[in-house]
Write a structure and sequence with these properties.
Layout (H helix, E strand, L loop, with lengths): L4 E4 L5 E5 L1 H9 L3 E16 L5 E12 L16 H7 L16 E5 L14 E5 H7 L4 H4 L12 H8 L5 H8 L11
Parallel strand pairs: 1-4
Antiparallel strand pairs: 1-2, 3-4, 5-6
The structure holds zinc ion.
Zinc ion binds next to strand 6 and helix 3.
């Protein structure tokens, strides 16, 4: 699998993961202010007049000009099961065991029927057995204490959770922006 390129806003905030072709387009349009990280790609374009293939390199981290601002930046990443299971390292919040993705479910700590909300701080990863056992009760009512506390991932962590094939230098950059309280540091 080809690695993705991490693009940053001019302010230094992560902007998007892009494919190599899109990264090459930013180079071609002179939108790259600076780049860092390893050289991940040697793009081979068409055959040139001298018979050689054209080659363009890109690095793994690109800062782009002209793209910034809050419009691109949702304050809180959208909640999805995939991101939730990644945040929780596929570990059930009740039995504390690790499961495959397809054996996991989203549990509302305070059930929706009891006024709990579908937000990052009220959802945890639960195996199907624990989810069924807990049913429509709070952890206290079910006598099933949480093995960890749910939290809202910040932007840097969101970028880590979304990509399962992150290069070492991209990971180092992103981890530096993740709060110490994140389980990514555990
Ligand atoms: Zn469980």
């Amino acid at each position: 699998m080809e690695p993705l390129i991490l693009t940053l806003e001019q302010s230094g905030l992560p902007r998007a993961w892009v494919c190599i072709e899109e990264a090459i387009t930013y180079h071609a349009k002179h939108m790259v202010i600076w780049s860092a990280g390893e050289h991940v790609c040697e793009y081979r374009g068409g055959i040139q007049n001298d018979g050689r293939r054209s080659r363009i390199e890109t690095q793994s981290i690109l800062t782009l000009r002209g793209i910034s601002g809050a419009a691109h930046r949702p304050a809180v990443p959208a909640l999805s099961n995939g991101l939730l299971f990644a945040r929780d390292r596929q570990v059930c919040a009740y039995c504390a065991r690790r499961y495959d993705m397809h054996d996991l479910s989203c549990d509302h700590v305070m059930p929706v029927s009891k006024g709990g909300r579908h937000t990052w701080t009220n959802v945890v990863t639960a195996c199907r057995g624990c989810n069924t056992k807990k049913a429509d009760r709070s952890p206290e009512q079910a006598r099933m204490p949480l093995a960890y506390v749910p939290y809202t991932p910040n932007r840097h962590e969101h970028f880590i959770l979304r990509n399962r094939h992150i290069l070492a230098d991209q990971m180092a950059f992103l981890l530096a922006g993740v709060p110490r309280t994140s389980r990514l540091h555990a």
